[in-house]
Structure formats: C-alpha cells, structure tokens
Structure prediction request, 376 residues.
Amino acid sequence: MDFHQFILWGIYIVYAEKNKQIFEEVDLIIFNPTTQAYPKDKKRSQFILSIYNYIYKILGKLQKKVLIIQWQHYVFCGGKYTSFHKIQSERYGFNFIDAYEFCLREKLLDFYTQFNLFEVEHPMDFVYSKMAQNICENFIFFKKPKKNISFNIPDFKVLDLDEIIETKNDNFTNQRTYLYKENVYNLKSSKELKFNFPKEYFGMKILGMHYHNKQRIFSYCIFENQDQKVLQGIFETQSFNALEYDFIINSEIKIHQLLDENVKKPLFTWFDKIWENNKEDIGIIGFLLASREIKIEDLEILEETEFEISKEYDFTHLCEYLKEYKIAIEQYNQRKDPIKLASLQNQINTLNIQISDLSNKKLIKFEKKIKKIFGL
Prediction:
C-alpha cells in the first residue's frame, strides 16, 4: 500500500512520544498541504486525499488551534482538488487561508509562478516571512476546532531504533535534526543491520522510515524479512520515506544495500534507478507502524466544486500583502530596468567599437600582405 511519504511524516511527528509535550503545549498548528495534496491523477487522488483526511482527523482530535494554508505555488504545481482541503477545514473547524484563490481573484498567479517548477515550489523568502508576521498578529482571532466529532483513526505507532537497539552501540550518534537532538544509527553502506521488533509489534506493518543523513544523498536501502525484500529510496539530509508492499513484522528484520532480482522496487514513491549505483551510509532514526488491517476510507471526493468556507474560519485576507509586494516589485523594476539597460547598452556599444577596431586592423594588415605579394 502506498502511503504518501510526506503525509506519513506528519503522522509520525504527531504520534512520536518525544513530541507529546510539544503538542500538549502548542498554541497553534500550521499545516501546509504541498503539491502532492492536489493530485492530477484521478486514481491516486482517492488514496492520497483519504490519507490527508486522516491527518485532518488527527489534528481535529488534538483540540488545538489549526491553520491550513492553501498556497498558490503548490496548487499551481499540483493542479486539482483545491476544494477538498477547504471542505475538511469546514468540517473539523480549522482556520483557512486560500492564497491560491486570492491570487486568482487578484490576477497575481502568473506573477508568483512564472519560474521553473522547482523555483515555483520554493518561493521567495518574503512570501513566507510576511505571512508568519500576519499570523502572529492575528493569533487571538483564530478559532479552536469543533468539538463532539467522531474520529475513526487507525492504530498508528511510532517506534525509534534506539528503543529496540542499545544506544551504547558504537553506530549510534546524537545528532541535531529539525526539532532537537536525536539518536541516529549510522548504517554503513557495506554493512547489514539485523534486529527484532518487540513481540507486541508483530503483525503490524511498517509504513515508512524516518532518517537523518550527514549530507544530502540519493541512495537506497532494502528492508528484508522472511517473506520479501523491499527497496526504499533515500534522498535529502532528513526526510521520511514510505515503504510499499505491506511489509509485515513477522520475523527478524534486515536492512542493507544488497540488490538482487528478488528485490521489489517502488511503484509510487520517488525513486530513480541511477540511485542504485549510489551506496551511501544511511542514518536511521525510527519507524511508523500501523495495524495490519488498516483500510483506506472510501471518501466521496469531488474533483472540483464551488465551496465557500464560513467567514469565522476564513483568513484569506491575510494574503493582501501579496498584492502590495507585486506593486512594489513592479514599480522598482520600472525604475531600475532603464538603468540596467543603459549599462548593458554601453557595454554593447563598447564591444561593437572593439570589434570594429579589430576588423579594421585585420583589414589593414591584409591589404599590406597583398601589396607585398604583388610588389605594389
């Protein structure tokens, strides 16, 4: 089963025991659905959006203020199902900012997306920093989720490797990750890690692995039990990757990089075949588990439908700065462009003069050579 990796990372963070105090003390949770939340493929949409629905249920059950931001750049790179996240926010009582709808309405979409796809997904810093300021200034106005809602949530578990293997093992190092320092097991590319999950976890499936590497890598590792061998792509410094093919905990687990014809390759999660040539050390932190019987809910998901969120939850007006910044940038360019062009024109003129002088010198030299040949 293909649980999308970044959605699963969110579930891992919420269910990790080490984060329990953070979520107990937090005043506001900000959640940004990324490009994958707006799938173009209809077959994948049912699955991906159903998993997002689990996230929304989990956030609702926490009974903390939640803010969902539907960014224009992620919708632009994705494409569909923008109303789904708005409907879920209304259902659970989440505050909502629709930056995409704001950009459409104010004719700003082209301005903020006229780059290659990588740059579009990673906008200029001010887009986020100004929004953060607006959120802080409006915190008191955000609403708490609705109460008395029934939440049917699967049985997720988080188990880190330092809970299974003694941390005195020389392969463990204490490294700084995004949130804090964690025990990271350094699996050498030439080595094999063997371990057993505690008996109470037998029969559960491994949904994915959280890892932290010393540098950005594009590699892989292979999970092996008595039934199958499954390849998982490893990329970036810190991330969480999904493990496909219903990998059930029923025996000793091995993690290694020994490829053979029996290894199952990823069907849905990102993996490039050339990574098979990159055997790198991998830093393992922990695993997200779920009951074997976990099912994807059969949701009725409309591709697109007009939906207006209640005014009490709608904070799209906090996007107003996007319009103001566009005006400021365009006015700046109107003044700066002629100066840049003048400098460029001067360089072109200088270059043309140099070319002309060089051509004249070559012509004079050629004429002298001809005269000498013919004795003129």
Observations:
- The two ends are 90 Å apart (CA to CA).
- The chain has ten helices and twelve strands.
- The mean pLDDT is 85.
- The CA atoms of residues 81 and 303 lie 5 Å apart.
